[in-house]
Amino acid sequence: MSDDTMMCVSYSGDANLKKSDGGDFVLVRSCSDECHPDHQPQQETVCKETAAELRDEMLFKQPESSHEGDCPICCLPHSINSDEATLMSCCGKSICDGCDYANMSRETASNLHHVCLFCRQPRPTTKEDYNLHFEKRAAANDPVALKRIGMKRCDTGDFKGAFEYWTKAAELGNASAHYNLSILYQGGRGIERDVEKEKYHLEEAAIAGHPQARRNLSGYEWENERFERAVKHLIITANLGHNVSMQLLKESYKEGKVSKEDFAGALRAHQAALDASKSPQREAAEKHLAKNAHRIVY
Predict the structure, then answer these.
(1) What is the residue-level pLDDT of the chain in tens, covering all 298 positions?
(2) Residue 233 in contact with residue 206, Cβ under 8 Å?
(3) Cα separation of 240 and 209, whole Å?
(4) What does the alpha-carbon distance between residue 50 and residue 56 come to, in Å, rounded to a whole number?
(5) What's the CA gap between 172 and 189, in Å, rounded?
(6) How far apart are CA 141 and CA 139, in angstroms?
(7) DSSP label of 75
(8) Strands ordered across the beta sheet of 17-19
(9) Is 48 left (phi over 0), alpha (psi -120 to 50) or beta?
(10) Which residues pair with 6 in a beta bridge?
(11) Alpha carbon of residue 172 to chain centroid
(12) C-alpha distances in angstroms, 181 versus 97, 187, 189, 199, 241?
């Protein structure tokens, strides 16, 4: 019997199936080369079902943090609101407002030049310098820079250009780029509309901890009346501190689509996520910015 009569499917305990070392798959050995074509359709169906199960296992696993990650200075989780951090064009790091404000205050009081807290490079003083830094980093295939330039292309209506930059960033694992691609595929901007590709990029972003991507997936499942899957998405996103998802969970709980235990657990996890992203420095920065809205946004 030749090697091509073997296929990889999920383990079912059948004596005719040999379980792989990893324990997740088995090698199916046909009784002969002649009978292999007769069994292949059934085996391919099992393979597809197993692939779908594994995909769901990845999709519904609770991420350790949101796609924003932690501030590299104070090591506290970033708020899922990206407006509460400053993206450094020199190194591509996001510094939370608390650390950035504390450092800027120290430099101003000591009459020092403003430098990046992470790489210690001088901070750009003009919009042109800021963008030039990102251009250089994009040329070196930095996913954050690629995603940023894609945003600039999108803002000017160059959706094809945005698609190219976001595709490169997504291939390098940038969750926001995956989410942005899903929006392009949804609206058919610069590319043809494609529901399957839209959903694929939403899932990739959600797996990486992007709360809005998972919120959109929840809406997709809700529209198709797969309420159990929709609720799972909301719970995962609420656990990351997403306020909209928590509110939707409350409404789902009132409708009887969420158990009391799951709702109570989501409430606790949601509050814990919000508390984890707080600090005295961030609160001071928030008060300062509320009074002096001079954040530089290029």
Answers:
(1) 344 444 444 433 343 444 444 445 545 555 556 666 766 677 677 778 888 899 999 999 999 999 999 999 999 999 987 789 999 999 999 999 999 999 999 999 999 999 999 999 999 989 999 999 999 999 999 999 999 999 999 999 999 999 999 999 999 999 999 999 999 999 999 899 999 999 999 999 999 999 999 999 999 999 999 999 999 999 999 999 999 999 999 999 999 999 999 999 999 999 999 999 999 999 999 999 888 765 554 4
(2) yes
(3) 8
(4) 10
(5) 22
(6) 5
(7) -
(8) 6-10, 25-29, 17-19
(9) alpha
(10) 29
(11) 13
(12) 28, 10, 10, 10, 24
Burial classification of residue 240, based on how many CB atoms lie within 10 Å of its CB (0-12 exposed, 13-18 middle, 19 or more buried):
buried
Amino acid at 78: H
Q: Which two tokens stand for residue 182?
A: 């899903």
Burial of 48 (0-12, 13-18, 19+ CB in 10 A): exposed
Distance (Å, rounded) from C-alpha 80 to C-alpha 209? Answer: 10
The three-state secondary structure class of 172 is coil
The residue type of 156 is T
Among 112, 127, 116, 114, residue whose Cα is nearest residue 88: 116
Helix, strand, coil tally for the chain in percent (to 5): 60, 10, 35
Length of the chain: 298
Scanning the structure block, which residue is given the tokens 């080369």? 33
Structure tokens at 129: 């310098």
Q: What is the C-alpha separation between 163 and 159, in angstroms, rounded? A: 6
Residue type, 235: I
81 C-beta neighbours (distance < 10 Å), count: 13
